[in-house]
């Protein structure tokens, strides 16, 4: 109750207590004296009550003023039991985070060392040397190299919009003469915004530079991939994996539930790019200026099936299958330094299948199509057929406190052009890779592999195919 209400109550109680005394008073002056004493006592108690409200709960109660010897004072001291407890102030409402406080920073770095055991690490002019379009450190010069040094800034800037920025600080360029390779340059990899069309975030539109949804392996992050490099056949569709455009994705809640379970189990997923995707991109490639008015059209679909109902042997197993298709017109770079004035057909379809390793797994992709390829007979670029893919097997070995081991083997095959190279040279790839990945902690991974390669060098000025055996190593740290 308020202080004034409390004061009035005490005054009434005191008057009632004084009634017998007042009846026997000899004069009005004696009665007035007792009333003045009562008022003083009530004022003292009111002040004590106000002080107790402002003091901490643990503070000792304020002592009342000494009561006079008169009987009314004794009656008044017994009247109030205890001042009411102070009502605690309500906590202020939590402040909503600003958009920049919702962003997070993460990344990973990969360092490699490749060693030739035997083979054609060098060759005379005009003859293929053993080289890879995915790892320039496979050469006769050897040495350590930084394959990737990625930094990602991402987060939800609102309930319906999120952003994603990724740069690579291990990009290499050549000097002006083209004779010396310079490393450690920064390059934009991703710069896009996701706009969610529903509260459950099942539907979204992605605007900006992002991965083109063609091929399961292409969309899987290199930080999460088991093998050291992507396969030539699948990656030849979108070298660099990215382009500038708009793509829509849809993921049914039932599919998302399966993927969440697999991720919690530690499986190497391809990243949630949607169970279904359809988009349009420039089509010229990562960080390359568009050269024509045509757009790359691409579609992707994948669906996981839980195999628990097929018996105890398949309990917990998930089988995923899907496909992708693209239609494009591309203008390759020419040996003269310019870009081809001719736009070549660049169309293909692909399929993929995956049995997630629990503990044994298998993964495979294949694609067919037509694309630009250098023709030696006519000394020009023509549109030619292409085909190829890979088959990969792996086995998960949980190791408890020392992490997990995953041995694997992959065979890959490709016959077709490499549109990202100068003059779109023809690749002829046969490769077997046997390796093992050890991840002692989430922040650290080691990969050791043996590779038996037979490849045509991605240079139309060199003929034939080179062969060789290599030991390949990589350490990756995540942050």
UniProtKB/TrEMBL annotation:
Signal peptide range: 1-25
Listed Gene3D superfamilies: Porin
Biological classification of the source: Bacteria, Pseudomonadati, Pseudomonadota, Alphaproteobacteria, Sphingomonadales
UniProt-recorded name of the protein: Putative porin
SUPFAM superfamilies cross-referenced by the UniProt entry: Porins
Superkingdom field: Bacteria
Region annotated Disordered, chain positions: 74-94
UniProt keyword annotations, A-Z: Coiled coil, Signal
Organism: Sphingobium indicum (strain DSM 16413 / CCM 7287 / MTCC 6362 / UT26 / NBRC 101211 / UT26S)
Coiled coil: 21-55
